[in-house]
Each structure stands twice: as C-alpha cells, then as structure tokens.
Amino acid sequence: MISPLVLLVDDEVPFVETMTKRLNKRQLRVLPAYSGREALEKLEDNAVDVVILDVKMPGMDGIATLREIKRAHPLVEVIMLTGHATVETAVEGMRLGAFDYLMKPCEIEELLAKVGEATEKKSEHEQKIIAARMKEITLRRGM
Length: 143
Prior knowledge:
By secondary structure, the protein is an alpha/beta fold. Helix content is 53%, strand content 17%. The protein has five helices and five strands. Strand 1 (5-9), helix 1 (13-25) and strand 2 (29-33) form a beta-alpha-beta unit. Helix 2 runs parallel beside helix 3 (62-72). 29% of the residues are buried.
C-alpha cells in the first residue's frame, strides 16, 4: 500500500521542517504549507489524504481553512493541531468536520496513529462511494 500523502499546515517554519523530517522517517509522504491559502492551493494540485492543520495562523486561521477544505474536498480528513486550545475552538473544529484535535506538542506516535485512522476513514468513504456508483450503473443497465 502506498503511504498516505499528508499536507502539514503551520505558519511556524521550524515546526513544519522538523515534523516533515520526522514523518518522512516514518514512511509518510509530507507536503508542507505555511498558510491556509497555500494549503488550499496545494489541495487543488495534489491527492492529499490527510491534512494536519494548525489552528492559530495569521491571515486565514485554521478554522477558516478547515471550513474551506471541507467545502471543496469533503473526503479529505483534517487533524487540528494547536498549542492554543480552547473548548470553543475544539467544538467548532469538530462541528465543521475535523477528524480529531490534538495539542502541541503531541507525541509522534499519537500523531501517526491519528493519521492512520484518518487515512482509513477516508478510504472507507471512498470505497462506499465507488460501491454506490457501481450499484447505480448496474441498476441503470437493468442487470
């Protein structure tokens, strides 16, 4: 199986560089982005499985970015990651469709587990869509 493509979005360059190296060592393919706008652009050109998204960013924050990701790419799973968690932000993120919400710093193994779970959920949704389309085609053909 091909490892998932993860879009890592955070305005802190050293954090993104360090996490990219750590995730690459664990066989994940990582695409870095340093703003919400850049993340949305990269989603248009890449078959991303999971987004790891910082909540607090200048300009377009994580909640606004999550809203746009889910509008344009509803099957992409998003893990919110922040050092500034509030209950309100977590509730809003989950309401908008975030897969999960983790605090910085988080253990790399916990993050890897969440990426694996999110990838599996995305794959299950894709398989259900394919099965529904195949059923529809079969019914239209009268088989």
